[in-house]
Specification:
By secondary structure, this protein is an alpha/beta fold. Among the domains are: 56 residues, N-terminal domain of TfIIb (Single Sheet); 227 residues, Dimethylsulfoxide Reductase, domain 2 (3-Layer(aba) Sandwich); 133 residues, Barwin-like endoglucanases. The strands form seven sheets. A seven-stranded mixed sheet has the order 5-4-17-16-15-6-7, covered by helices on one side. A six-stranded mixed beta barrel has the order 21-25-22-24-23-26. Strands 11-10-9-13 form a four-stranded parallel sheet. Helix 17 packs across helix 18. The longest helix has 19 residues.
Amino acid sequence: MTHETRYRICSICEATCGLEIGLENGEIATIRGHDADVFSRGYVCPKGFAMKELHADPDRLRKPLVRRGGDFVEVSWAEAFAEVERRLLPIMAEHGRQAVGLYFGNPSAHSFSIGLYLPVMARAVGTPNSYSASTLDQIPRHVASGLMYGDWMSVPVPDIDRTDMLVVIGGNPMVSNGSMWTVPDFRGRAKALQARGGRLVVIDPKRTLTARMADEHHFIVPGTDAVLLAAMIQSLVADGLVDLGHLEGRVAGLERLEEAVRDITPEAAAPITGIAAEAIRKLARDIAGARAAAVYGRMGASTQEFGSVANWLIDALNVVTGNLDVEGGAMFPLAPGFQNNARGPGGRGRGVITGRRHSRVRHAPEIMGEFPVACLPEEIETPGEGRIRAMITVAGNPVLSAPDGARLGRALGSLDFMVSLDIYLNETTRHADVILPGLSPFEEGHYDTSFPQLSTSNAARYSPPLFPRPDRPAEWEILLEIASIAGGRAKSATQIDDDNIAGTVRAAVAQKGGLIEGRDPDEIMDLLSAYRGPERQLEMQLRTGPYGDGFGARPEGLTLAKLIETPAGIDLGPLTPRLPKAIRTQDGQVDLAPEVLVGDMVRLRARVAAGPVRQLLLVGRRDVRTNNSWLHNLPVLAKGPNRCTLQIHPDDARARGLSAGDLARVTGPGGAIEIEVEVTDEIMKGVVSAPHGFGHDQQGTRLGVAALRPGANSNQLSDGKALDPVSGNAVLNGIPVDVAPAAQQAA
């Protein structure tokens, strides 16, 4: 028997933990945390262990499927691509490129291969109709960052290892290990914070795992985070506690911010938020008085009717208390590559533009090149010029993750053609005509392109393939083949890839002050020739990035070869202040009062004037084992107690004649579901909670484990009409619902 130890970055969630994998006779025998990993330092959650089951899952597709006579049949890759060409090109020729819609799911961000080549494929297709899971999740965070700092990915994250006070609003990093903040072993870091005398404060309508370990927890009415934040800033202004610190002279719009929150006092906010006025004032004073503090918000702050305003005010609170871009505050990571705000001299830039286009039917804004996915069904169903008639979906399941999935499913079923790049036949891909499965994460190399830009410390890590599969195309090769088809085969997949990297090289040698300014592009292309595909792009990014060797200009700098030789990764140090260089706004200032966000304060003031909500409000929740629908098919994550339950406060349950274990019927604007009741005082009175991503009871899927415990799709309770108007993000928290015993409703 042969024994071998290999190392791998877990690519299931944002924590990006290092794994130590034990092989016996070439098969995975054990998975544990990699103690020497410079970033995660041995920490791993249950999802890391589940990667073995994902690799071996018998339901995972390994050959292309084509629909013939109503059924899926396995075909060769050549046959599958020929079917895509036969069906897709006539639609584009007759109706234009806008007749094709693109949807990118959550796993796209976790795939080195997909993440780098989605833009290449999208450019080749040339449609304006792009959608992704981002508008079900974090787009308000990008909007706030783009408008305030000039780049969508300029997201400040808490410097938890050096802070004295961490305030978490609508997030549960004990379960997510961050999220828009890559922080493995949050529990250990939070305990260290408390051990050195610091404080953890959680504001959430549920006593989450994070709230349980907090020094202070405040229940808050769902969807009122922006009201709370405005009141905290107002109280700081009224008490003369605004202090920009080192940002003095680098901030624009302070007076406009102060005017925008002037009428939202703690007394006005208290009945709306459910938090007492004095508690609001004290929390604001504590943040202002701490040596170093950081305010962080996540899903609860984004997937609500005031998502963009809430995310803006989180950052504004960090700014006015002097806690932005300082050690122990909210800081900007410096990634080894792929980071726009690390290119060029910095200090100013082009900024961002929102709403360059609007959706055809609802006129919802485009953000970051995407329309809100909640608008997708109507764009398929509504006749007229520009109607979507074909879809390309990549690694996603919006039928379960988007609002009113039943309607979206019907719309997808009405398309003239649909092709899906996915490893599962799920509730969405069951509507496809062609399914093109990528590889297992263990079968291709991995580097996180996005998450180092959100990480709690700076590091560089790369994982080579554990089980290379030269006999099958990787996702990047599939995407390039689709790009070639969409371009009418004017260029081969290889030519498209070569042109793409050549364009990157030309831009780099032309960049003023760049590491390879003025170099011969052909020379750089030759130096990149040892790699292909994603690894070639990574080599380029690493060698020209802030830590790079500049293709020999700085011999001690980063290269891909150095990462391959260092499986534990290279520690690039703690977060450091990055302003003003990280700024990309046109005037070089942090914009504390973006016009569109200040304008939306009219709506927030109207919400305050309307008074408290009397109806039950639905919120989602996360579990470390179920944050994505496709994880429901892995036995190690699916086992244990039923996690698809409706959590309800004892008083609310009693008033409705419900007991633990009963079946409740929950009715919302988009429809109704039946779900098991879980009675708990860890949920705020007047609030109920159900997780997303369930509903695995649809015909035509191949998810054997998930189908055994299908659960209920809570997103069906939303009709998709409610959006944050600034970002277009779907409102999935704070949805008004009615709850009653299922038997009573049926009668």
